[in-house]
Design a protein that fits this description.
The protein is built from six helices and six strands, in the order αββββββααααα. The chain is α+β, with helices and mostly antiparallel strands. It has two domains: about 45 residues, no CATH class; about 90 residues, no CATH class. Strands 1-2-5-6 form a four-stranded antiparallel beta sheet, covered by helices on one side. A two-stranded antiparallel sheet has the order 3-4. Helix 2 runs antiparallel to helix 3 and helix 3 packs antiparallel against helix 6. The longest helix has 18 residues.
Length: about 190
């Protein structure tokens, strides 16, 4: 690298909170640092008390460069301070289990995901949907989490597929459920 050239400089607004920790011997300093709280944004409230939360930055690197608009999507449980870094894979696994138990309702849930994918608010879709009970995570969590996961994918791949990458997998699952489940009206 040439002398005087700076790398990894990003121009972006940042919300800062003052933090002062006096230097200490290694273990004592580490313990103080580990107690620093996570920072994020509450973006959705779930009926069961959990929340969809995003933290920014997310830390994604592409070709050695950090994706400055990346963020992480979490399900936060204020009752036990649990943070679940929910992923597309987690939701697909949940949909697979739902499909084994109730294929017809799972297809309806996937159809609802399609509406959120196209830009409808999850809350509006849920009001119109009235799904029957499904095992696993509630449909509300799935719809609200995907709204933000898709936003994350769109930020990370603005000139690529974005949200289409994960929706392809969900559409394939819907097609498979519909073909493997005889005599059902989907």
């Amino acid at each position: 690298m040439k002398k005087g050239i700076k790398r990894n400089i990003y121009i972006h607004e940042i919300d800062l909170v003052p933090l002062t920790i006096k230097n200490k011997p290694r273990e004592e300093f580490r313990k103080h640092l580990e107690s620093v709280k996570y920072r994020g944004y509450e973006v959705e409230q779930l009926a069961d008390g959990r929340k969809i939360v995003i933290t920014k930055p997310g830390g994604k690197f592409t070709y050695g460069q950090i994706k400055r608009e990346d963020f992480m999507v979490w399900v936060y449980n204020p009752n036990n301070s649990g943070l679940w870094l929910i992923s597309h894979k987690d939701i697909c696994n949940d949909l697979e289990v739902k499909a084994q138990n109730n294929p017809q309702e799972t297809v309806r849930l996937i159809d609802a995901l399609e509406k959120v994918f196209k830009g409808e608010e999850p809350e509006d879709v849920l009001k119109a949907l009235k799904l029957n009970a499904l095992i696993g995570e509630p449909p509300e969590l799935i719809l609200k989490a995907y709204k933000w996961i898709w936003g994350q994918e769109d930020c990370n791949y603005p000139h690529g597929e974005g949200r289409e990458m994960s929706m392809k997998v969900i559409r394939h699952l819907r097609k498979r459920i519909a073909t493997e489940t005889p005599k059902q009206n989907f």
